[in-house]
Fold this sequence. Notes:
The protein is an alpha/beta fold. The chain has helices at residues 41-53, 74-80, 85-98, 112-119, 146-158, 175-192, 219-232, 279-286, 299-304, 312-326; strands spanning 5-17, 58-63, 102-106, 124-126, 163-169, 195-202, 238-240, 258-262, 290-293. The protein has a single domain (5-326), classed as Aldolase class I (TIM Barrel, Alpha-Beta Barrel), CATH 3.20.20.
Amino acid sequence: MEPRVITFSKNVFLPLTTVCRNRCGYCSFRTAPGEGCLLTREAIEGTLRQGAAMGCTEALLTFGERPEEEPGFLPYLEVAGYPTILDYCEAMCWKSIEYGVLPHTNAGILTFDEMERLRAVNASMGLMLETTARIPAHATSKGKEPEVRLAMMEDAGRLKIPFTTGLLLGIGETMADREESLYAIRDIHRRYKHIQEIIIQNFCPKPGTPMANQPVPTTDEICRTIRLAREILPREIAIQIPPNLIDATLLIPCGVDDLGGVSPLTIDYVNPEHPWPAFEELKKIAGDAHLKERLCIYPQYIERGWYHPDLQPLINRLAQTIKQRGS
């Protein structure tokens, strides 16, 4: 029997802006427009330069959803020389490619045309479904309408974009809601075969938010959700957990395949109070399984050619690099 494999990617986290139109009850990532609300080009290039030197292969580019809808944000974009956040994101993706790091963008709700545009400069993309349930935590967040998020996941499939999605546990949904969400993901994947991984992520309460005192999911509850995901989803979809948010050693036996993007350089800006484990700690988390580095685009999608031709030289070079690191 071949040894079990647990994968991860080595990344840098680039939050282009934390300005966001949504008002989720559990979020502390969002900020109002103001000085420093846009990550500067100089800071991004510095991080990419350092990350590339440290062997990072993925740049996770995120920003608050539709920040231009927030009054006062556009002047900061104009000073930076970009008419929209999408223009800025595309330009920074090109910078990432120049530095030899593959972009993976997770930017909230995007249209078909916007994803088609970003596909040219991204090896993969993502959007957390979170839940198909209508919950109070999303009452003032129009981008969290389940139908809108599912429709974007469908568009990603039509565009043949290797895609990451996931559930956020403990935000007011039930186990039945989680099951419904997993079936929705399964059904979309059956049509398009583009979902490469699903994140099972536990909610972490943040001081000062409406859900600061909400109880967190137990390890047993998360384990049951992982097992449910493994039962419902096709085997080719990897199940990922964030190793900085919970004792991942307890969840590996539940059916985990992947530990996600882990950075040796940047913090988890969504959960800054939870530092990333070091590489040696990842090996301990994996236990008896073989820990294997991967790119942000999974091997089956590289084989299918599900990427823009301009990305092929970098994908091939980085795939060879991690192969050599693992040998």
